[in-house]
Design goal:
Shape: elongated
Number of strands: 5
Strand content: 5-15%
Strand order of the largest sheet: 2-3-4-1-5
Largest sheet: 5 strands, parallel
Radius of gyration: 23 Å
Number of domains: 2
Structural class: alpha/beta
Helix content: 40-55%
Number of helices: 9
Length: about 325
């Protein structure tokens, strides 16, 4: 068994545990939220089909396959078209990602519809439903679970795709962010660091989280941390467990938010290939750029200051 299989098996055990965990004293994990969402899709197919069969019993059960085969895919198509038409087409969500997400939703709705049609047939109908549901889980869980676990370990405050960041990016800004993403994903020799500054509510943290979310969706090791926790990070040198966020020394993208004072940086951690620093103060931003240049960057590193206020970010209503 190779390292990847071992990690996946550990994730599957953690995922199974999250399904039985109490939400009274534990926070929701991304995997817990995903399976809850898919359970809702099963319930949607089950309830709608059950109501249809109850009101039109003479038509029988099988004609209601029109729900998963036509109506729900149409709804998913509308969602996909909306996603592809998001404000920032320069950061469009990959078609492969949209396809697998849509296929998962449709498959779980189909499980619910199958349950409505087959459960009245008795034990063999229930067995078929269980086999179908098991096959759907067996196919989709390994595709989604690593991403969900990556999100849990990133400690991002929320998930936000850059495609939905409604602002006026210039061509240089787009190229800079693409270079950052490429440098992490492809492990190119060029490293990119962003220093974001601007007043409150200008979209700084949202942009930083958007960059982190794009890489988390690619299973990169992303870590979001406040400046205070970043300064105190040496207080907990213990290696991170599967359910704990990445340590600064383990991550590929480091996001440090809410910087209020000048930071003294030690040597760049070995795995960090990009970083995003967020502050309200231009003077701190400029000082931070100089510090990064002198202590973190090499000859192939690029450090960019971005005045987020100039992007005219429009937060979602």
């Amino acid at each position: 068994m190779d390292a990847n299989e071992t990690v996946l098996n550990q994730q599957l055990k953690r995922f199974a545990g999250s399904l039985t965990s109490s939400d009274v004293y534990q926070s929701y994990s991304a995997s817990y939220a995903w399976i809850s969402n898919q359970t809702a899709h099963i319930g949607l197919g089950l309830i709608l089909t059950g109501i249809a069969i109850a009101f039109f019993p003479k038509l029988g059960h099988w004609p209601w396959l029109i729900l998963p085969l036509v109506l729900y895919p149409f709804k998913e198509l509308v969602d996909v078209m909306r996603a592809r038409g998001a404000p920032q087409k320069a950061f469009a969500i990959p078609k492969e990602e949209l396809t697998i997400d849509t296929a998962a939703d449709i498959s779980f709705v189909t499980v619910g519809i199958s349950a409505a049609m087959l459960l009245p047939a008795g034990w063999w109908g229930g067995l078929l439903v269980l086999l179908f549901a098991g096959a759907v889980l067996w196919y989709f869980v390994p595709k989604f679970l690593p991403i969900k676990r990556a999100f849990d370990k990133s400690a991002l405050p929320y998930f936000f795709r850059l495609a939905n960041y409604e602002a006026q990016f210039g061509e240089a800004d787009v190229q800079t962010i693409h270079s950052l993403l490429k440098g992490v994903v492809d492990e190119s020799s060029s490293l990119v660091h962003l220093v974001l500054f601007g007043p409150g509510q200008s979209g700084k943290t949202t942009l930083a989280v958007g960059v982190g979310s794009e890489l988390t969706a690619r299973e990169a090791r992303v870590r979001y941390i406040s400046s205070n926790k970043y300064l105190d990070r040496e207080a907990n040198p213990q290696a991170s467990l599967l359910s704990q966020p990445w340590l600064v020394d383990e991550c590929q993208l480091l996001i440090v938010d809410d910087i209020q004072d000048a930071l003294s940086l030690s040597q760049r951690p070995p795995y960090v290939r990009a970083s995003v620093w967020v502050t309200d103060d231009l003077a701190i931003a400029e000082q931070l750029k100089k510090t990064l240049q002198s202590q973190w960057s090499g000859e192939n590193d690029h450090i960019h200051l971005i005045d987020v206020q100039s992007l005219n970010y429009k937060p979602a209503q």
